[in-house]
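SEQUENCE-TO-STRUCTURE ENTRY
===========================
What this section holds: a protein sequence and its matching fold, both as plain text.
Tokens: labelled as protein backbone structure tokens, with as many entries as the chain has residues.
Question of interest: how does this chain fold, as expressed in backbone structure tokens?
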Amino acid sequence: MDDTLKKTVINNDKKLVVSGVFWTFLQLIVNQSFAFGLKLILAKLLFPNQFGLVGMATVFTGFVQVLNDLGVGSALVQRKSEDLRDEHYHTAFWTGVIWSVFLFIVMSLIIAPVAANFYHEPLLKTIIPVLSIGILVSPVNLVHKAQLSKSMNFKKLAFIDNTSNIMAGVIAFAMALYGAGVWALVFNSVATVFFAMPLFFNATGWKPAFVMEKKAFQEVFGFGAYATGSNVLNYLYNNLDYLLIGKLLGASSLGIYTLAFVLTDTFRSRLMSVINSVMYPLYGKRQNDFESLKKYYLKVVLFNCLFIFPIMIFFTIEGEPFIVKIFGAKWHETVAPLQLLSISVMFHILVSGNTALLRGIGRPGLEMKQQLLKASIFLPTLALGIYYYGLTGAAWAILVNKFIVVVFAQYTFNFLIPVKISIPEFISAIKAPLVASAVSVAVLLLLRFWGLNFIIAGILLCLIYSGIIWFMMRAELKLMLANFKK
């Protein structure tokens, strides 16, 4: 490839990344703002045990949802365009539909009664089959979403996601207002898939034909098997806390923990999801250009840290007045888990792009091994933390394990993959948010002695943090803005 062509390719990639990041970040802002407002309203209308019941159910339905994907989306996006045929899409679609019907039957007839007995909550026998309707329908959207992701058409993805979530949320709010209780939360979890379905069909124009080819199945699901294995282990790793808290401490405690988790780790996971959805197809395109992959990865970590750090600092320092004033005294036990989970999220965001990078360079097997190792450490520490110290113990166990995850990631970069990132390079890449965070924390802790209102403290945090970031990254931010305008 000559220099002119290479520069053209790089510039095109930059345009796709900037456009993708803009639309996915807009999607994140709209979704999280709406979701936060909805959770605020529902938390005032409902009670911790009702949140806990849905949390118990989603431990099981979420696990099956991971199995439902079969790695199809990842496989279709990672595979080079010239190697994809119509048969791959049709085979993936119908295999997903058949598999989802089987999983829905298993969830309704087997898993629901088992979960009800496990938690001693009879209502789960009804809640889980209703939540599983989303599992039954979601494969219909899977191929459409993969096609839009592969073409990096994140504007349409953002529109579909925002529209479906807002429509479902408005109806869920009305249901809670008129006394639907836990069913308002159940509806909100399921309805988004239905609202998204016609939007996906309209966005892609793709329609499935009844074609199932053995060769296409083997090519797509060969990669998908590793991706599914990684997803299963990742899900277990990220949901063991829900499972054990619900079992050992009950629905009310799980509801309290769920609110802390929603305010912290859910925001982190949403940000990682939308950013990684932009970068994953790009990693696949540039999978042999290790220097470019390194630069892209460090930029992803940097900008994730820029957005996440100030929010988590606010929850860590001003968590108590925020919870009590906004959600009410009934949620006071949320404070300690919220503060510890906020710190753990700041560790986790440092490895925010690992999954997309490993899959993009065709190493899902290594990702699966990592997840297995992390889970083997996490389970005993989490169980001991919950048994001896309850919700606070669970949060401490998560914090310790997120630090271990960062160590694993650095070992991977040093010894296991061709994309090499040293510790000094990593720290240098994120020095701006690190410095801004340190100064912001120092100022907020000093001002706490004066009894500053938490809203004013939040405004000051934004001003101080943003000012330092602008001072340290002014040239880079101006260049990005100029590129975006072009």
About this structure: The first helix runs from residue 3 to 45. Residues 16-429 form one domain.
